[in-house]
Specification:
alpha+beta, four-stranded mixed beta sheet, 417 residues
Length: 417
């Protein structure tokens, strides 16, 4: 090889991008959020000290492993490295391909099975997946199945699949993402008797992919004009729904007369029993009842509340109905144009939008929560813009305006296709 060829070859090597240094985090806090932002920005991360002090279950939990499997299914080229003890994770994101053929999807549909050891609700998987879907190369078409699918709210803080459908997905329309989006609850389920499992089934279709989300300016929360909800029960008498609805309406009717709560009654799902003498025996699971309420304002702002019967039982439906109504009033009273459960989704999409300043009015109680503060710090660590704050022009004492400059990363898969 001549000297000129060597110099040309050396120049080509210098032009290649050096490998990115992983962003380092510790503990399992905001696990799903960090993986989602890493996938959206294409930055590798390293998470250490994941439950290192636990003597019985150190390292990654079953729901976290299941989320990693889901991310591997909807991306192409992702690398996942877990230490022997499970306390250290290295994640290198790939291209978001969705349900494209040959990327983990069969017939354009990804079937993701959640194991029985999962103690989190299905919204733990749905919310990150919905944030990735607009930036996918192909539509998202995922069916969640398995003995660990819980469609109701959970004591861990997960909202129900009904609240995702009625309080989270409609907010995507404010970013210009509204076509061919559907969430179907094919089989309802609650937490089992031991606080695990549910055997539900959920189908998510997210077929609206964009190059860049629109810049959001949401500064007027308006007045509440209607309240909608779903009362559901699985494997228990339908009278529980009527009692919850009556108790909730007794509190909400003086606020607005346009209150309608739908009642959904379904049979409990079955799981194969563990009796070796009768291997074909089946056991009921996912028995319980719950209530999901959503309030809509005159400007399209949404506030939600979720309650569910505990796995051990012992709480009458009237108490749950009143609790959910008061929880909804508390969410409205916190102020702002976005509730606490939807704020992480909206702020993340604002950071991924075009390179312009978006503004969002939030309640100070929402902004001061540990989850929102941690989200702002994580975005800064990923190289996204910091947030600006100012007092609102309406002189609302309990609200503040958050300004977010979009990064303009956009949909890389849509750009190259």
């Amino acid at each position: 090889m001549e000297i000129s060829d060597l110099s040309r070859f050396k120049g080509l090597l210098d032009m290649t991008d050096p490998p990115q240094i992983p962003i380092r985090f510790t503990t399992q806090q905001a696990f799903a959020s960090r993986l989602t932002i890493a996938t959206l920005t294409g930055r590798p991360i390293r998470i250490s000290q994941i439950r290192p002090s636990s003597s019985t279950n150190p390292g990654l939990a079953p729901h976290e492993v299941s989320l990693l499997r889901l991310l591997e299914a909807v991306t192409n080229g992702s690398t996942i490295t877990i230490s022997y003890t499970g306390t250290v994770l290295e994640y290198g994101p790939g291209l978001i391909t969705g349900s494209a053929s040959g990327s983990g999807a069969g017939g354009g549909i990804i079937r993701h099975e959640v194991a029985a050891g999962c103690a989190r609700g299905i919204s733990y998987f749905l919310i990150p997946l919905c944030m990735l879907a607009p930036f996918s190369k192909a539509p998202m078409n995922v069916i969640f199945t398995g003995p660990g699918v819980v469609t109701s709210a959970t004591p861990a803080g997960d909202i129900s699949a009904d609240s995702v459908r009625t309080a989270i997905l409609p907010l995507y329309a404010k970013f210009g993402i509204s076509n061919n989006i559907e969430l179907r609850i094919l089989r309802r389920s609650n937490l089992g008797s031991r606080g695990r499992g549910g055997a539900g089934e959920v189908h998510l279709i997210f077929g609206h992919q964009v190059r860049l989300p629109k810049t959001l300016h949401l500064l007027n929360s308006g007045r509440v004009k209607r309240i909608r909800g779903v009362a559901y029960c699985t494997g228990v008498p339908a009278s529980n729904n009527a009692r919850m609805i009556e108790a909730a309406r007794g509190i909400l009717n003086p606020m607005t007369a346009d209150t309608y709560v739908f009642s959904d009654v379904s049979s409990a799902p079955y799981l194969l029993g563990k009796d070796k003498a009768a291997p074909a025996s089946k056991v009921k699971t996912g028995i319980g009842f719950g209530l999901s309420l959503v309030a809509e304002s005159s400007t399209g702002c949404l506030y939600s509340a979720d309650v569910v019967s505990p796995p051990t039982g012992g709480v009458p439906p009237e108490d749950l109905g009143q609790q959910c109504a008061y929880q909804l009033l508390d969410s409205i009273g916190q102020g702002g144009a976005v509730s606490f459960v939807a704020a992480p989704t909206v702020l993340t999409l604002m950071a991924m939008s075009s390179e312009d300043v978006g503004r969002l009015q939030l309640g100070k109680e929402v902004l001061s929560t540990e989850q929102i503060i941690g989200l702002g710090r994580d975005m800064k660590a990923f190289g996204l813009s910091g947030w600006g704050f100012r007092e609102p022009s309406t002189q609302q004492a309990n609200e503040i305006v958050v300004s977010v400059v979009g990064k303009g990363v956009g949909n890389v898969g849509r750009k190259i296709s």
